[in-house]
Specification:
heterodimer; A: 317 residues; 2% strand; B: alpha/beta; 10 strands; 34% helix; 23% strand; binds adenosine-5'-triphosphate; binds magnesium ion
Chain lengths: 317, 264
């Protein structure tokens, strides 16, 4: 088989993974982009979702119900981070790290003190399986479309708008009577519920939950969010932005397939994605610096500052 | 309408940075009072407004708004009673959200946020009507992100938001200080209109003595966290800048060394 046919044969698997992890990336988008809260809980909550789903399925509970379990379990982990942050005054990043740390033994307990639980397709009917990547694509796509629609609705409501205001300007939000602790809580629960759901689906896909399955999830989530933003930079609509996140996750997994074909392994990929995320995060900063330098040069050339900050973007005032 | 009774606030108590910003400050505003507030740098003007808004709890004293004791209420709960505009145009609005979304948030100030639509039918038309008198063309840009607006436009929008749901007290903290003179005059004019139209009880901090004299029916001067001058009625109408400087010197026992104030 030549390089391209082999790569093509891997596409259904890559797309399926991308769609499943796309759900997680949507969760990361909610905290990182909307709430402006870099939430590191996800590395733990993804596994919590996977563990809960796998254990439920092994115990004969139907796969869709197991997914609801994963969703709820994920939401609870988000609530824990929220409590650490809003009720105990712990800075956001630290709150997420603490949750992640605490979740490791909890995830092991959920799996009966084993580091993995296998929930094989042969033993019980599941909704996603690596053995049928095409069907998985369809199911995961339905999930993604459904979740994107729900998020579009939610962030259009009063409560959703309040969450967005909290992320955009918490002082303004409080001045408008928004309980920012509550809105942060809502966003963290919603985000980690999606991450848990993603974990539940992924555990079914790979026929097992594993205590390490969430390791580096935040990196993948950020990469997906950033790739999506670059690809969909011209789309302003909220639904378009969310679609971009899912597409970003798919692109990420296609790139992984490519990279592995070229002889690198998935661990190398983590290094590459860290680099990509770092560079894309740096771009706006560099752009800004450059713009400032140019402005300084211009204003020193003719001795005036034609472009005071408060009037920069408009000709109205 | 607004009663501050013996309010104290010390920042960083027990450290080398300890700073008593409000020192048994008492002040009462009647319904419909429009008081301008002046005072040197660090006199406690912003701190007084933050104390009213509940940004942090005060150490001592009590605060009542419209007869309700709000001393122990958190910031977001007090928002029900207060409209606020800040010095920094970035602070009063959510830059990532559109003009209409910002207005819709303000229209629900102090209300519970439900799962109903964030902007209801009919509200857009209302917002347009409200924006038109500003004469800034914002009524045609309802779906523009607020981050794209100039500082003056953002302050005008913040003023509108602060008064959209009639507040018991309007707090303006040097809300024109970051604007160029022409824009500042325009925003000040809009402030006057809004206060007049809704008969709002208002506290307006300014560094401009002329503005402090020209606007409102009361003038309050703070120094070292206390009210040292409170001029109203006919006396306020006849006030001049030299008068004010002389009275400051008499009241505080020191020369006014704040050139920001004098420059006005
Ligand atoms: N959050 C804070 N933490 C510590 N110190 C503070 C804080 N806010 C105000 N202060 C201090 O309290 C004093 C009063 O400050 P405030 O901001 O009220 O002054 P102001 O009258 O508004 O002055 P300006 O004209 O400079 O705005 C100052 O010494 C200031 O450094
Ligand atoms: Mg101040």
């Amino acid at each position: 088989m030549n390089f391209f046919t082999a790569l093509l044969a891997q596409m259904p698997d890559a797309v399926a993974k991308g769609l499943i992890w796309g759900l997680m990336a949507l969760g990361v988008y909610i905290t990182y982009k909307i709430l402006d809260f870099p939430d590191l809980t996800v590395d733990g909550s993804l596994c919590t979702g996977g563990a809960v789903a796998a254990v439920m399925i092994v115990n004969g509970i139907p796969a869709p119900v197991a997914l609801v379990g994963a969703l709820i379990a994920g939401g609870i982990t988000g609530a824990v981070t929220g409590i650490l942050h809003t009720k105990m005054g712990i800075p956001g990043i630290l709150a997420g790290i603490l949750s992640q740390l605490a979740l490791y033994p909890i995830n092991l307990r959920i799996m009966g003190n084993r580091s993995n639980v296998s929930a094989s397709v042969d033993a019980s009917p599941v909704m996603a399986s690596i053995r049928y990547p095409e069907q998985t694509c369809l199911i995961a796509l339905l999930f993604c479309v459904g979740i994107v629609l729900i998020l579009c609705w939610f962030f259009g409501t009063e409560l959703g708008s309040a969450v967005r205001a909290t992320g955009s300007n918490p002082n303004m939000a409080r001045a408008q009577g928004i309980n920012t602790n509550r809105t942060k809580m809502v966003a963290l629960v919603l985000s980690n519920a999606l991450v848990g759901l993603s974990g539940g689906l992924f555990a079914q896909y790979q026929s097992a939950s594993d205590v390490h399955m969430g390791r580096g999830a935040i990196g993948i989530g950020l990469a997906a969010v950033i790739i999506g933003q670059v690809l969909f930079s011209r789309v302003r609509a909220f639904g378009g932005q969310l679609t971009g996140v899912v597409v970003g996750a798919i692109v990420y997994y296609i790139v992984i397939a490519l990279v592995i074909r070229m002889g690198l392994n998935t661990n190398d990929m983590k290094l590459i994605s860290a680099l990509v995320v770092a560079i894309f995060l740096a771009i706006p900063y560099w752009k800004n610096n450059l713009a400032q330098k140019n402005r300084r040069r211009n204003s020193s050339a003719d001795g005036t500052d034609k472009d005071p900050a408060w009037n920069r973007r408009s000709n109205h005032a | 309408m607004l009663e501050l009774h013996q309010v104290c606030k010390t920042f960083n108590p027990g450290t080398v940075n300890e700073k008593t910003a409000l020192n048994h400050l008492s002040l009462t505003l009647e319904e419909g009072d429009f008081a301008t507030v002046i005072g040197g740098n660090g006199a406690g003007k912003s701190t007084m407004l933050n104390a009213i808004a509940g940004v942090w709890p005060v150490d001592e004293g009590s605060i009542r708004i419209g007869g309700v004791d709000v001393t122990d209420l958190t910031e977001y709960r007090r928002a029900l009673y207060l409209g606020r505009v800040f010095q920094d145009p970035m602070v009063g609005t959510a830059g990532d959200m559109t003009i209409e979304e910002n207005l819709a948030l303000a229209a629900r100030r102090g209300e519970k946020r439900t799962l109903r639509w964030g902007i209801r039918k009919g509200e857009r038309g209302q917002f347009k009507e409200l924006l038109k008198p500003l004469g800034l063309g914002l009524e045609d840009r309802l779906t523009a992100k607020v981050g794209l607006l100039s500082g003056g436009q953002r302050q005008a929008l913040t003023l509108l938001m602060a008064s959209l749901k009639k507040p018991r007290v309007l707090l303006l903290d040097e809300h024109t200080a970051a604007l160029d003179p022409k824009t500042a005059a325009k925003v000040l004019e809009i402030s006057d209109q809004i206060v007049e139209e809704h008969k709002l009880t208002t506290l307006m901090v300014t560094h401009n003595m002329k503005d402090a004299i020209a606007h409102g029916n009361r003038l309050i001067m703070l120094d070292a966290g206390r009210v040292i001058l409170d001029i109203s009625g006919e006396e306020k109408k006849k006030l001049t800048v030299p008068d004010l400087l002389a009275r400051f010197t008499k009241a505080s026992g020191e020369e006014m060394e704040n050139d920001r104030l004098l420059l006005a």
